[in-house]
Design a protein that fits this description.
By secondary structure, this protein is of the alpha/beta class. It is 42% helix and 19% strand. Strands 6-11-10-9-8-7 form a 6-stranded parallel β-sheet. The chain has a 4-stranded antiparallel β-sheet with strand order 3-5-1-12, covered by helices on one side. Helix 8 links the parallel strand 8 (202-206) and strand 9 (222-226). Helix 1 (9-24) packs across helix 3 (57-67).
């Protein structure tokens, strides 16, 4: 299993620069600069306007510090905390123009990541008490993978592979493009992958129990049971006898997760953790300081 993703603040800094450039176009916040004295100071309070699992507070802090390096950001909760509506998440004191300029960008990061953490928490809670772990996928916003997988982990679900480089995953398209469909295709694919990347774990996607038997014979570490019925998963678990780690994928809804966990598979992966998320409702209230 991949360890929970940690925030890569170098990547975060790049995304913040892109987001601010998109908002400011090198010319700045015209409204705040026109209306507010340049040396005015203010206090901002981040409130949860709905129940959520918070994620992204270090990112929000980095946005404010980008525009006011001297600002004081004080988190009142931690990433991964379950917060009720009305909870004060953080406070920030600094230059008023900078706080207002940073507001939307900071909220965009914080609301999106908290929405993912909240969804991940719901999915993980649905199988609490079972041995099965809920995994994310690579169905992430381009450029945001590190942040979104971090939010999944903050919410209590688990991370799958990060990208194409850290695990071999042999799918039907790989076998077809390699001219390896049919009997023995999985065995040859795994053998080639093992020879070229001996340090990487190998996962094989299967659609049928016949393919499952071949994957099991290949000695791969993981087998992905793609769009299988629960009954097929139960049979795969019986045949497996603990030799490979089994992952259910395809049509993995939160309603179906308990029965999948009861089938005895090790993991269930769902793209919904990142691609079908509603952002959490979080506000920033700013008041002037003398």
């Amino acid at each position: 299993m991949i360890q929970p993703i940690q925030l890569d603040m170098k990547r975060v800094a790049v995304l913040i620069d892109l987001a601010l450039e998109e908002d400011l176009d090198g010319r700045g916040d015209a409204t705040s600069k026109a209306v507010i004295p340049a040396n005015a100071r203010a206090k901002g309070v981040l409130h949860a306007k709905s129940d959520c699992v918070v994620a992204g507070l270090p990112v929000a802090e980095a946005v404010f510090r980008k525009l006011d390096p001297e600002c004081v950001f004080t988190a009142r909760v931690h990433d991964g905390d379950c917060c009720k509506k009305g909870t004060v998440l953080a406070e920030v004191v600094g230059n008023a123009v900078a706080l207002l300029t940073a507001e939307r960008t900071a909220l965009n990061f914080l609301q999106r990541l908290s929405g993912i953490a909240t969804m991940a928490n719901r999915y993980a809670a649905s199988v609490a008490g079972s041995a099965m772990k809920v995994l994310d996928t690579r169905k992430t916003t381009p450029g945001w993978r590190n942040l979104e997988k971090y939010a999944v982990a903050a919410g209590g679900a688990s991370n799958h592979r990060i990208g194409l480089y850290d695990r071999i995953m042999i799918k039907d398209n790989h076998r077809e493009m390699a001219g390896m469909e049919g009997s023995g295709g999985i065995l040859r694919s795994v053998a080639r992958a093992r020879a070229m990347y001996p340090a990487l774990e190998i996962e094989v996607e299967v659609d049928t129990l016949e393919e499952f038997a071949e994957a099991l014979e290949s000695g791969c570490e993981y087998i992905l049971l793609d769009n299988m019925s629960t009954a097929m998963m139960v049979e795969a678990v019986r045949r497996n006898k603990g030799r490979a780690k089994l992952e259910a994928s395809g049509n993995i809804t939160i309603e179906r997760l308990p029965e999948i966990a009861a089938a005895g598979v090790d993991f269930a992966s769902s793209g919904a953790l990142t691609h079908s998320v509603k952002s959490s409702d979080i506000s920033l209230e700013i008041t002037p300081l003398a």
